Amino acid sequence: MNRFTIPAALAALMLLLTACDRTPPDEPAPAADAAGTVAATSEDAAGADGEASGDIAIDLPEPPESGFVTDRFVEDLETLSSDEFEGRAPGSRGERLTVDYLVDQFAEAGLAPGYGDSYLQPVPMVELTNQARSALLIERDGEARELTFPENMIVGSRRLGTDPHGVTDSELVFVGYGVVAPEYDWNDYEGLDVAGKTVVILVNDPGFANPDGERFNGRAMTYYGRWTYKYEEAARQGAAAALIVHETEPASYPWEVVTNSWSGPQFELAERGDDPIMALEGWINVEAARELFANAGLDYEEQKARAAEPGFEAVPLGATATAEVRNSVREGMSYNVLARLEGTERPEETVVYMAHWDHLGRNMALPGSAGIFNGAIDNASGTAAVLELARMHAAAGAPERSVLFLAVTLEEYGLLGSRHYVNDPIVPPSEHVAAINLDAVNFMAGPTEDMVVVGIDSSELEPILEAALDEDGRVIVPEPTPEAGYYYRSDHFNFARAGIPALYAKSGFTHVEEGEDYVLAIEREYRDNRYHKVGDVFDPDWDFRGVAEDATVLYRVGRYLAENDVWPNWYDGNEFRAIRDRQRP
């Protein structure tokens, strides 16, 4: 559950770098349901042609007779989050134990290796550590002003190699939100040549400034609001550098989160494809931005308001930027785990269940188990649920389409394992029917009347989920803070950005017996005291009824997709719809 920050306890991860063992763990040889019909209503209900079809009948497969075996799930959860597994840091002894365990369990369930004849997909990566960072020098009319780290700026570079990377006398241009979104008829770079220039960009997207919903998705962040997108788009436009203006409310985190997250080692895939990468990426705080604009004779608030309106035109800031960074580079290897239930009729067409197996490892400076980040909820819970879903599908027999069970690495370090899989998939993205992500699936509070969909109103997977929930008299509810953009902060996002419809659903808020306050109190206690802390440990007194119900719902969704020829699409207007339409015209 990547939320932009991680603790400083990265010592175990360092074992992965340079001196890591590149030999995969030993792998053992891999050793007609009843249906209920439920009507689901959606503006764009799931259909084979991806067109709106109004009310549709969804024949939902029942789980196998064995169902979700809670005792097996609990055993997997307790094992994966035990002290023996040392917090499951990539590259550590904990990774070896975790990967061995997952391979053993998939093989025992009768699932075939998913990556050729192997269960393991190598994930080459690098660690980039800043060795020297200059100030950010802003020059105008012969006068210079230095922005310094961490007071009002931070810059870095994702370019590989140990040579210095930076810009010198690079012209500064304000490009509003830095968005190119054809589905919203929006292009902040229209008619603009930013080659060699440094673009200054607002955080979030134009909808945040227009909560009535007339722009983008209103307060609900789109992908265009994520800082990662802004750097990617600036690089595609040919910019040499990009600086995002930080403001706490639209960013949903304070300035200290930015500086803390960017000041330590950064992790990247060693094989990143051909996407352009700028010389520098960075942030400035809003006070520095106000001064920058004022010195150009501009009012920052007025320009921000202009940027939220259609037809915005970029504004030169009459100044140049100079800055430089130098990284050290270390290489390493981790592994995704893939298991496959091959389809009987259309095996290339693939439904994916996924969860990240990694967590934060241990703080080696603390003795015994005191420094182990066990990660029971985040995300031994999702990994254990994927194992049990794999057993359920195997017990039900092979469906028409293939089902892939994907346990990915390096989620906590930037969603790198899932990004690598999407860059090197077992079948083309166009043959992926959908992805279902299980990340911190349940706070083990017990059964709920509802199920939360993060990034609701995104795709035609939602009517299928709605029908599956209706079987149990349950309902879909939206996430409470869509402006934070959590849909873009977990592994399914890499599938979404490749055009593949992706569902991120988890337990709801209203407890069947205790009501809403009961669940919210448990979730709040977890966030305050255990999330990304050593307190995220297994508790045998948890109420596992809810996770069994939630996983069974997701079984029905995935099995329906695997036993039919539907191709769910993104809803019209979604930022990923055009990609899918090009894949499957």
Short structural summary:
26% of the residues lie in helices and 25% in strands. It has 585 residues and is of the alpha/beta class. A hairpin with a 4-residue loop joins strand 9 (180-181) and strand 10 (186-187).
- Name of the CATH homologous superfamily of the largest domain: Zn peptidases
* Mean pLDDT across every amino acid position: 89
In total, the number of strands is 21
Please state roughly what percent of the residues sit in beta strands, choosing from under 5%, 5-15%, 15-25%, 25-35%, 35-45% or over 45%: 15-25%
CATH architecture of the largest domain: 3-Layer(aba) Sandwich
Alpha plus pi helix count: 15
When the domains are counted, the total is 2
Q: Which class of the largest domain in CATH terms?
A: Alpha Beta
Rounded radius of gyration (Å): 24 Å
Structural class comes to alpha/beta
- Main sheet summary: 17 strands, mixed
Which fold does the CATH topology of the largest domain refer to? Aminopeptidase
Outline type? globular
Poorly predicted regions are 1-55
Helix content: 25-40%
- The termini sit apart by 33 Å
Give a verbal description of the structure.
By secondary structure, this protein is of the alpha/beta class. It folds into 2 domains: 15-125 and 333-583, Zn peptidases (Aminopeptidase), CATH 3.40.630.10; 127-329, 3-Layer(bba) Sandwich (Glucose Oxidase, domain 1), CATH 3.50.30. 26% of the residues lie in helices and 25% in strands. The protein has 15 helices and 21 strands. 51% of the residues are buried. Mean pLDDT is 89; it is low at 1-55.
